[in-house]
User: What shape does this take?
Amino acid sequence: MAEKHDILILPNQGDSSIVLLETHSIIAARGRKDAASLMVRKLALTSPESVTALADHGDADEQFSLGKKYYSGEGVPQDDAQAALWFRKAAELGHADAQYFLGLLYDKGEGVPQDYAEAAVWHRKAAEQGHVHSQANLAYQYYFGQGVEQDYSEAFLFCRRAAEQGLMWAQRVLGVMYEDGEGVPQDHAQAAVWYREAAHQGSAEAEENLAVLFQKLCNAAERGDANAQWSLGELYSKGDGTPKDSAQAAAWYRKAADQGNAEGQLRLGLLYGRGQGVPQNYAQAEIWFRKAAEQGNARAEFNLGMLYYNGQGVPQDDTQAEMWFRKAAEQGYENAKSKLRVLEEPVIRWAVCVKNLETGKMVLITPDMTVDTDDPRFGDEVHIVPVVKDQKDPDWLSFGVHDFVRDCACHPKIEPRARGRTIISHRAAVN
Assistant: This one.
């Protein structure tokens, strides 16, 4: 990764810190002359004696503050050993910044013997508390096997955590790892996403990476590489490395889809469903979702289920919807799990009933029956009542009460069975 993309190159062979504390309290990423830097916030000027007194009483914040004073020589003689002592006290109390600084000291061998393994210990403690610079440091150590066993998967894990917190260096490196398939399956579309994130923060290298990636995908796509074709479709769809163009995205997705690429089939189905780059056509969406779903693509399974659930491009069918939702849910797709919970819950249906005057009970009017207006057993009112019933039972209507209130007297499923009776909506229980 380092040689191909010219990143993570050490300023000199003796420098081994990814993030180091420079003079004037500037934190910078290792190997990155233009890395985002930030000033370590200045402490309010207080007497060393008062700070020490609070630190001696076990206050982790004050211990950390005193450690920084000794490290920078602010108000006290500069002393790396004393800095390490106070950072350690705060670090052992769980102070994330102190853990990070102690890791830096071990990384540089300042105030303590240089020990990359010990640096990794403290960076991990801080990283697990969300400390972005420790996450980046740990990613570097795992990538190069510095103080830990080399592990690209762990390097990717911590690099992603730092990238998600907005660290530009990590965003670009994450793009490289996605592009090269290091610690994660190769994914050019995701590489483009992270290059774009870093470029938006001003990384000229990420901007260059994105341009090179786009050209590389164009060349491979023209040669007929299906993965490159759907990846190129992604770049056109999102406007990564090229102006956004839904029609071009659809064209490249189709080329990939025609070769059996499940991701291309899924994306083409989504464009047909949304009417982006192609005319909206749910029947076409169904065709492409099904092709991808039959290859086990969870998102396609979910979207095919949604078409059945809504009756778009296919007849409405809760059974088919549930089947496809379940397939997606078994692969961990959260939206499918949510839809299954909705389908499995008892559903309130609105039944059409008349009252039997002889028994005082409500009688359900099913789709295949009517009630004679002159029948003395029944009252002059048709009641719309809520009931809990298996939603797949065809004898129970699925219209909500608001539908009836608005225009129920002429509703095609109600009027033939009402025979001129007054329509009443209420919440009486069905006996």
Notes: The two ends are 73 Å apart (CA to CA). Residues 1-46, 388-431 have pLDDT under 50 and may be disordered.
